[in-house]
Amino acid sequence: MSSHPDPFRDIDAQANPLRFIEALERRGRTPSQQRLRRRFLRFIPIARGDAALEVGCGTGVVVRDLLSQVGGRGHVVGVDPSRATVKAARLLAREHPLRSRMTLRVAQGEHLPFRRGRFDAAVAITVLLHVADPAAVVAEMARVIRPGGRVGLQDQDFGAVVLAHPDRVLTARILDDVVARLYPEPYSGRRLPALLRDAGLRDVRVLTDVYQDTALEPYSQDFLGRRAENAVRFGIVDAPTAERWLDGLNDLVARGAFLLTVNYYGAVGVKP
């Protein structure tokens, strides 16, 4: 079992990896999530015929998006340290019409098994929040792209979360105290431009986007349910208090007053 409090750092070490695989796919299917990640891929941009790398590919949600962008003349490689998610990604892509243009491998982002200059673009989407050494991952991404190639990073920023709830004090305790225990840097999104510049990339551009939910979509239920579960696990609140907090969200949905937004920051840099 993993000793780190963030289960997404080591999915294979969890008691039920399938739970996290299903959660990744639910997020991938959420329309607001689809729109914000596809806007970011166009912002990079990823073009027809490109050789593209995704670091931290998980179940292959972004790999499948990238296949549609690079087309039949391009190629997409996805890597992830989790054997369980790479296996799931292969199964989920088996019916994709461009699956022959895809390669999936088990590998660490800090030690990419590719030669220098192999790719036109490399991306890491909602990954750096979960890794121990983000600078090492970005340096490796910069190494494996060609001169003139692009590195694109996108991450949530948990310092920019808005959640409607009648108990504001309890909401702040659960949201803020949980992320402080889960992640070394919960304000991950805002550090991305500096990571690119420190890796020697130039012409850094930033795209700010927002995940918005007014209906308590399945992904938002997962997200907030895990926050409540972790608040109990870390001793921030007891189980009845966490349940009361979740019930307050359901009351808002019934009244048409639910609102959740999370800021996402994307940054792109060019290799000299």
What report would you give on this structure?
With 272 residues, this protein is an alpha/beta fold. It has a single domain, classed as Rossmann fold (3-Layer(aba) Sandwich). Helix content is 41%, strand content 24%. A seven-stranded mixed β-sheet has the order 3-2-1-4-5-7-6, with helices on both faces. Helix 6 packs across helix 8 and helix 8 packs antiparallel against helix 9. The longest helix has 16 residues. The termini are far apart.
Helical element count?
9
| Unreliable segments of 5+ consecutive residues | none
Q: Which CATH-level-2 architecture?
A: 3-Layer(aba) Sandwich
Alpha-beta content class: alpha/beta
Largest sheet: 7 strands, mixed
Rg over C-alpha atoms, rounded to the nearest angstrom: 19 Å
Number of strands: 7
Overall tally of domains:
1
> Taking strands numbered 1, 2, ... along the chain, how are they ordered across the largest sheet?
3-2-1-4-5-7-6
- What coarse outline follows from CA principal-axis ratios? globular
Helix content: 40-55%
Distance between the termini: 42 Å
Report the portion of residues in β strands.
15-25%
Question: What are the key terms here?
Answer:
alpha/beta; Rossmann fold; 7 strands; about 25% strand; about 270 residues
